[in-house]
User: Which sequence fits this backbone?
């Protein structure tokens, strides 16, 4: 591969920045991998948000020079959602004939483990770094070093970075929470008591979904949030928490769970209390098992994301940047509600 040596050189340069502990300045001209032309950061319009379909139409299918290698630093693949994100990344890379490597963690909440995996990726000759950070700042040092070496940095789905030049591909997590609140309000015109089961307290997705949900509930004063507790993305913990909530507040009308894995635990608690069909359950993500339960009538709705689309678009963004094309700082991949009215359109997989 003709560009293999170049990739190794770029990774080595990035590693030196990390070892020196310096703050990179990716806005400078040194961000150009070829030593001439625009830096990666100058190609990213941080103030612009563009819908994914509009951007794809505008820029067209990317091409990849021989020797290009893309690296994706993800979270735990035991969470089905991140498996779909990984699949979207790898499938698109294969389709475009691009070399790739995925780095996953075993602990969903371990920022340190993910940072170690990201450092490892920087030593693998990557032409671009894609990542789904556990925290909003956990991989900032990696992104700064990559951009300083002319390596594009793209965040998929979670923890939109504030580092200049990093592109975010995904939905607005705050809007996801707000959408769930509005959906519950539309189904409970007379109001009632609501409970929320939260994800890991260090996760940007958990923070933003929760903030959006609570802010939008304020627009529906007949809905009362009587309980909210973290289950750290764990299904068993979510079941125990929901059981306790229902015991303390047997008149709860609806639950919002910040992901579908935890929602399945909440569903088990609702079922055990004999309240199936009487207590609403709205999850997040749109994983296949949640949609199966929606079709069966035991689960009300999920605010579905589009991980396959996000990841495949992330590959395109990386290649567009390597080709010198300008891109927005945020490629919006909107979430949408899946319930009994449309679940048949999404019987398998994730969009």
Assistant:
């Amino acid at each position: 591969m003709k560009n293999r040596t170049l990739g190794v050189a770029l990774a080595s340069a990035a590693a030196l920045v990390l070892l020196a502990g310096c703050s990179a300045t990716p806005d400078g001209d040194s961000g150009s991998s070829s030593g001439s032309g625009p830096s990666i950061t100058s190609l990213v319009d941080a103030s612009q948000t563009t819908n994914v379909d509009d951007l794809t139409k505008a820029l067209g299918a990317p091409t990849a020079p021989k020797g290009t290698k893309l690296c994706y630093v993800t979270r735990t693949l035991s969470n089905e959602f991140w498996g779909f994100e990984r699949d979207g990344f790898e499938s698109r890379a294969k389709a475009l004939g691009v070399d790739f490597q995925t780095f996953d963690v075993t602990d969903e909440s371990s920022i340190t483990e993910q940072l170690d995996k990201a450092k490892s990726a920087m030593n693998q000759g990557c032409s671009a770094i894609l990542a789904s950070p556990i925290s909003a700042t956990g991989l900032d040092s990696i992104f700064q070093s990559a951009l300083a070496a002319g390596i594009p940095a793209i965040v998929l789905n979670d923890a939109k970075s504030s580092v200049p030049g990093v592109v975010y591909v995904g939905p607005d997590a705050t809007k996801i929470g707000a959408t769930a609140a509005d959906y519950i309000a539309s189904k409970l015109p007379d109001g009632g008591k609501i409970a929320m089961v939260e994800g890991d307290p260090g996760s940007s997705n958990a923070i933003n979904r929760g903030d959006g949900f609570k802010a939008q509930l304020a627009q529906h004063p007949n809905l009362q949030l009587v309980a909210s507790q973290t289950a750290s993305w764990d299904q068993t913990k979510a079941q125990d928490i929901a059981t306790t909530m229902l015991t303390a507040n047997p008149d709860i009308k609806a639950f919002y769970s910040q992901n579908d894995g935890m929602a399945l635990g909440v569903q088990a608690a609702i079922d055990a209390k004999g309240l199936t069909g009487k207590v609403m359950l709205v999850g997040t993500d749109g994983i296949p098992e949640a949609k199966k339960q929606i079709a069966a009538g035991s689960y009300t709705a999920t605010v579905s994301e589009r991980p396959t689309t996000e990841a495949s678009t992330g590959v395109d963004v990386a290649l567009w940047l390597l080709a010198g094309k300008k891109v927005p700082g945020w490629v919006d991949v909107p979430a949408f509600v899946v319930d009994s009215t449309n679940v048949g359109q999404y019987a398998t997989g994730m969009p």
